[in-house]
Write a structure and sequence with these properties.
The protein is of the alpha+beta class. About 25% of the residues lie in helices and about 35% in strands. The protein is globular, with a radius of gyration of 22 Å.
Length: about 150
């Protein structure tokens, strides 16, 4: 009888352990902590943190003759200050790289925010770029998703 109780207790423990593992896997695949959504048609960016609205900012994406990619990515590099080798060493402060040479970064061309003006990157005001950069640094690139749509 004692042995039967031990076997049953072991099975119950394993069931709970497996449920916990399944819940842990579900949590890993859940929404990112930092969700960055860029809408090219409205030239805007929405940022949510843990499902709560953090900010909505004007951006500039690719102007005519250039292309901003559409899709969803996780960032792969953060650079506090980057200079574009492709475009005359142009400064790209608080760069969040997500696809090749494409990044979200700050710009001093503030009057162009809210309309297409870049070579393909997503430009933000320097203050908002610094805030976003810090947010991604704090929560991590693996917990961040960047989605670009029309």
């Amino acid at each position: 009888m004692k042995r039967l109780f031990t076997v049953i207790a072991g099975l119950v423990f394993m069931a709970f352990a497996m449920t916990g593992a399944a819940e842990a896997n579900t949590k890993k695949k859940s929404s990112p902590v930092v969700d960055i959504r860029i809408d090219v048609s409205s030239q805007s960016m929405n940022v949510d943190v843990n499902g709560w609205s953090y900010g909505r900012w004007k951006v500039s994406t690719a102007r005519s003759g250039f292309h901003t990619p559409r899709g969803a990515w996780r960032p792969f590099a953060l650079k506090k200050m980057h200079y574009s080798r492709k475009y005359d060493n142009s400064p790209m402060p608080h760069s969040i790289f997500f696809l090749g040479g494409y990044a979200i970064h700050g710009t001093n061309y503030l009057k162009q925010l809210g309309r297409p003006a870049s070579h393909g990157c997503i430009r933000l005001s320097p203050q908002n770029a610094a805030r976003l950069f810090s947010l991604v640094q704090k929560h991590g690139m693996k917990s961040t998703r960047i989605t670009i749509t029309n």
